[in-house]
Amino acid sequence: MKPTFYFCLPFTLLFTSCVSIPEKRAQQVDEALAIAPIYATSEYPDLELVDSLLELFDDPQLKQLVEQAWAHNPDLLIAASEMDEAGFNFEKSRGALFPSLSGNGAASRAGSNSSAASNTFSASLDVEWEVDLWGELRNQTRAAQADQFASEANYQATRQSLAAQTMQAWFNLIAAEKQLNLAERERDSFADTHQLVQRRYEQGIVTITEVELAHTDAASARADYESSKDARDQSARALKALLGQYPDARLSASTNWPALDRSIPSGLPSELLLARPDIIAAYQNIRAADALARAAYADLFPSFTLTASGGRSSDTLSDLGRSAFDVWSLAGQISAPIFEAGQRRAEVGAADARAEQAYQNYRAVVINAFTEVENALNSEAYLAREETARLEALAAARRAEAKSLRDYESGLIDILDLLEAQRRVFSTEAQTISLHNLRLSNRVSLALALGKGF
């Protein structure tokens, strides 16, 4: 069953005046803090919305990885089982609204020394029904149904989060592969520089100090290369774990980034967040908590139970198959608390407090959702401008390195200037790799914050 009532949530006033919100929270909802809708102003880049995370990037391997995670990740499978359990709990709770029917059969044989033995057979149908006069059972059923809807939303939230984590882990692996390739080039470059300085030393052109400085950077580059290999393997293990597989490092990524060519239009309405399953789940938790609070209140009143029984008793087994009942009973029972040291009223207060907690948790979830969207939108703009500047810096650093090498061979600069030029190239390129990885991950975070995860 799919919940439909949450579509009336007005996010611009943080759920003000939605008629589906239970009465117990209605006054608090009406007094809730107003929150402005999301606006993508001119300071944000012009981006294009998609219907799901998998539509963000045209990468068949990435889509395959996400589907593998959906099929085998233990956390998602646990969430699916919890969703099934909530469905069965709802069916169980709903069954309490109807009469229960049970059948009984018995057979006995008795006798004494002075009389012959005789057989007695009996069969009966028993009906019991608790009259839900005050709505306790109905409210418990409503709570169970809301729990079912919340569990379905939690499953979708876990599914969305897993897709996002898998995509970001894939980007991390691509970045780690690129960083490893960069570290290999850096190692080879500083080794070449060390050999160049060594030859110049043998020719008597430079001092032993310059040789040791070049040796230092060459050794550091070898160490960085080993560190990059470790980071690359850890990224592969993290992705394999998300896929529900043994976390070894035997997984390679493409060295090409997925295209980042989609965009999101300016003027994002806050209603987009209605698709977020964590908000749906939090709202369903309010409904469940309020229904349980009303059920606890109804438990203060007397309960009524009707029982009926009909059947046959005979000394011949074949007589039990006749339709006419020659034994029957009908009874009604009323029970009411007289003295229990305030336990039920304490439960009413506790249930109301839990409903208040659910309401405040809902407000926190909504505020957090707006925060995530605003942060992702801002980061989208900042990271785009930062990457442009970093690429410009990288181009300049490469030009400076090429000139520094020519000047060093001509004797115009010393080894420190050449090594610094080389370090700046590799450092800036490493920053551009990390930065593009951040841009891809932030795009996923933005889509996830908007609820675009199905």
From TrEMBL:
Transmembrane keyword on record: yes
Subcellular location(s) of the protein: Cell membrane
This protein's record includes keyword ATP-binding: no
Record-linked InterPro entries: MdtP/NodT-like, OMP_efflux
One Pfam family, short name: OEP
Topology class, membrane: Lipid-anchor
Keyword terms: Lipoprotein, Membrane, Palmitate, Transmembrane, Transmembrane beta strand
Principal cellular location given in the protein's record: membrane
Family: Belongs to the outer membrane factor (OMF) (TC 1.B.17) family.
Alphabetical list of PANTHER family matching this protein: BLR4455 PROTEIN (PTHR30203:SF33), OUTER MEMBRANE CATION EFFLUX PROTEIN (PTHR30203)
Designated name of the protein: Efflux transporter outer membrane subunit
Organism: Coraliomargarita algicola
